[in-house]
Amino acid sequence: MDRVIGTSGRIAFASAMRNLLADVYPEHDHADLVRRVFEVLGLPLEGDGAEPCEEYLRKWDQRDAFLITYGDSISRDGHHGLESLGDFYRTWLKDWLTGIHILPFHPFTSDDGFSVSDFSTLRPELGTWDDVKALSKDATVMADLVANHISASHVWFKQFLAGEKPGVDYIKTASPDDDLSDVVRPRSHPLLSKVTTSDGEKHVWCTFSYDQVDLDYGNPDVFFEILKIVLEYLKHGVRVVRLDAIGFIWKVAGTSSINLDQTHKIIKALRLATTAVHPDVLFITETNLPLLENLSYFGNQDEAHLIYNFSLPPVIIHALLSGRSDYIRKCIMSMPPAPAGCTFFNFTASHDGIGLRPAENLIPDADIEVMTDHARKMGGQVSYRSLKGGGQKAYELNVTLFSMLAESFGGDRTYGLERFVMSQAIAMSLEGVPAIYVQTIFATENDQTGYEETGIPRRLNRKIWQLEEAEERLSEEGIAKRAFDQLRALMSIRMGQPAFHPNATQYTLNLGPELLGVWRQSHLNDQSIFCVFNLTDQVQDLDLSKINLIMTEGWTDLLSQQVIEDFNGILALAPYQIVWISNIDGRNRIDSRLLQRYRDAMPV
Description:
Residues 64-494 form the Glycosyl hydrolase family 13 catalytic domain. By secondary structure, the chain is α/β, with parallel strands linked by helices. It is built from 19 helices and 25 strands.
């Protein structure tokens, strides 16, 4: 516990918590609910303590970037997964990735960790809480809280079947006669699973699979159980809590059962309670939804600190494969600046593949179909979701980013590496904190063996690397090493630029369909960076008169170190060339060794 709120803070805290819980649980004793929050947090109900918790000042800056990985994505015989991951991180990543998002590390029964059977411990092959604590000494650790559901093997569900406390009251049920026609689904199987209990036949709500039974947040005891799990994470060094599938937690027949008002208030209550004793905790919501729905999880600066920029992967990929900036430009222009104290989590690939639902209203259905056909051509698979009234719609592309970008829609395979590197450079350039999936680190091709052995499409993008094999891949000359060296150099250069602060000002530039451009400006207005990307396999001319190069400043491309002398001239951009044009102060922040590393990794 970091600190205890004092009398004045305690009163304000109790009032705010009462208001939230009263809206969510109107039929319960609100004073008692607040008392239970104080009890779980270990806060005194009376008496003076320390001063009220103050806002945690440095949430993030341009130095921050995350690795997304499973705890056993890097393995080594005779060692725990987290120990091997830690060794790999310290040797290869620590100087340019400050955080590690560890995907679910608890015992599980399906869905590669997202069907948790025991929240109290870690899988033995990954290690123990001490391994998480050890990682937290070198990196900002993000942990997954699978908040919507539990495994059918979890003790709570066993208790539900047996009619025993407390689990008998923890599981969400419904009747087949309920109006569930509007329920939004990420899967195509029937929603309800019929089970036999000691009290007869019941139908359990299963959003994701029949091995993943949904919790009933209508019971406030479930909220308190989840709060205890969050506190346990923080006790062992976790600083960022990822709320998985959080949009689905509140269900009501006759509604969509996603993004309901009670869901938002439960997140706010979790944040309010937790920050009372851990003011440096950050919450990130995993809501794979269209843009406006996703943005709602910032709340009034009192909900998620970060939200996943789910629209980014499909629009980046489409731009690079088509050579057109129209959809990604529309996406970036549609993103309002994050509220104060909030920001976006920018990624291009994840363990789940490339989500297509966030591209709705950004990429027309005909172009989505082109993307799905391309994914299959490149050895990937396509997952579908059920639609209201019947039918299915493509939900997710299961393919590695490297395989997806290896060939353009037009058939070009010459510039696959350049497209791949540019996908990351775009994410690094935008407002928010960048994150790189572990398979991107290795420029991994589709793991066909993993898919064929399991029949699980997502296994195409979940290869497990032996530590020695991983280090050889990044050490020996080849595409993977060149990609890695470029990514490390780009991120290292980015870390020194205040204009790349996650909340620095951003403007979208209109430079024509072949180019993507954004202008970033630091909080103190002392640095501007014009980020321009040639999305095509042809030389494209950048008309410098279309960007705001103030004539009183000196300007240079941070990556090539080319000095801009004619502010009204033309800069010829090679196929898939990236330029970060900064005022002179930005150039002086660059370590020449980083520039050389970037140049050496460029294809000949």
